[in-house]
């Protein structure tokens, strides 16, 4: 395998299997993601999409296999990875302001004990402004709408200033304007030669949003440029014979890709 | 009583000084750590931990024959940790859920503790062992040496919280993200759990195992009512805890053999009740007021709207019955609210029928307009900037600021909605902003 010259490759996963209580949820994942791509991870519920990105960061234990980030083990490369967890994964009634949440994006650089300083605050405010949330910095997070909470998470990832981003359903439960704002931001990140992996639900927008797609159903069904792998056949393999999903997929195929 | 009070607060008595300082330390540390426990949803874990400490106290005494606090605390810590470990093993290895596991472990350890304690008391090696104070706490039994141990523990706990505040905050709010940022969350979690263990140990002698959990939980939940910032919550909780400690100790010193723990808990519960009722914004009273204000505004708006819409159709003097039918309200309610509006000068009675005053017509027109625009807004909001959407739905008129109103009117005009002319008409009564020339 290309372990030697992997320094240019943002993410390599080799022979990775994940099991919860001995029941495998992801089998033999073997894939590479090239740099500067906006990557969609799609698959049905329970296919292991979230599990895969969590496993990359060591948030769930691997039963076997390895993950390399720019050719090195993940543990050495934490600083280059940015993470947007699922919005539902945290308690939004927690007594914390939007700005403080964003500041967590600096924790990795600060290390133990050191507190965020003025410079960190400035960066956090900048990131909030970037996602259109400047005036909500001091707001307690439960007083934000779903879309705004998602923007806060995104701002936190932005100040991580990462080269590889892993995002778990950043579009779930957001309004159309937020979705557009997020996708514009992701495109901007890509233009800075960063790589973004996005767990995505909505098949209709896949061809529009992503230039690379990973299709999963407990194993990797397909991994490649959207134009090549996001095919009827692969969708059938990924989603099985479920009629509703197939028709959804068929619709998705009918949507012409946005010119880029 | 006055004598006792003076004696207590003059601090002339060394014993009183120890007791007071002790309860201050206990209340402070448990308030401090309690916040993290409560927010981490580990409140019951603290309870189990405290109960599970009892057999450790008894065993430590039986094995060493010593009543020195460090020895007993060590025993307590070991058996408390064993209890927590047992819970984690049960939850991890079986299908038993954590509430059942906590209940199970807590009662088994506590039962064992009582058995051992009874045994120790009976065997009574000549002198009273006095271990029963660990049950409900006896602050009066604190001596200088105990206090020194407690002070060191409390200082350590405080230092750890100050140093690792950021890490604890990250752990509790978003453990996954903290881990992804390169912090070993398991270690941070273990550290936090360790601090909670120490906190329980600080309070064991004066508060007792049975009620220690209350000191971990009550000040924290009381503090949560007053603030939306973790740092403020933590200090406030420590303050509430200390206050409960001091007042509780004082009250229990008034009567002989009154155990300190229960009194401290009662005091902190009083603080909690006060917070839950009277805290601004989160308190019950504030919420009830807010709710009532909303209902009132809604009701006024309904009535005004009904009046404007009836007038729109050419109905001049409004009868109670007409309004009642239109609103679907009982007549009594219409009469009551009409009276209120009349007192505000929005409507007036003319020959037994109601009429909008000029002020009422203006306000009513605005309400109707807001209402209709709001309906369109709900349909068209995708077109509008999303950062205007967050405001609570009951603040419609805030949401529909002039900028949005203009934008909506443009949309409505583009789509040639019939209502635009009517809205334009209604608009006449209003000062300022007026969609002139849009009717065509």
Molecular structure report:
The complex is a heterodimer of chains A (260) and B (440). Chain A is globular, with a radius of gyration of 18 Å. Chain A has helices at residues 49-56, 98-103, 107-110, 118-130, 146-158, 176-191, 206-209, 226-229, 232-239, 243-254, and strands spanning 11-20, 23-33, 38-42, 64-69, 72-73, 81-84, 164-168, 195-199, 212-216, 220-225. The model of chain A has no long low-confidence stretch (mean pLDDT 88). By secondary structure, chain A is of the alpha/beta class. Chain B folds into 2 domains: 14-217, ABC transporter involved in vitamin B12 uptake, BtuC (Orthogonal Bundle), CATH 1.10.3470; 289-425, Winged helix-like DNA-binding domain superfamily/Winged helix DNA-binding domain (Arc Repressor Mutant, subunit A, Orthogonal Bundle), CATH 1.10.10.10. In chain B, 74% of the residues lie in helices and 2% in strands. In chain B, strands 1-2 form a two-stranded antiparallel ribbon. In chain B, helix 3 runs parallel beside helix 5 and helix 13 (284-312) crosses helix 16. Residues 385-395 and 418-440 of chain B have low confidence and may be disordered. Chain A binds chain B through residues 54, 57-59, 78-79, 81, 83, 85, 89-91, 94-97, 100-101, 104, 107-108, 110-116, 132-133, 135-136, 140, 143-145, 147-148, 156, 160, 175-178, 181, and chain B through 39, 163-167, 169-170, 172-174, 176-183, 224, 227-230, 232-233, 381-382, 384-387, 389-390.
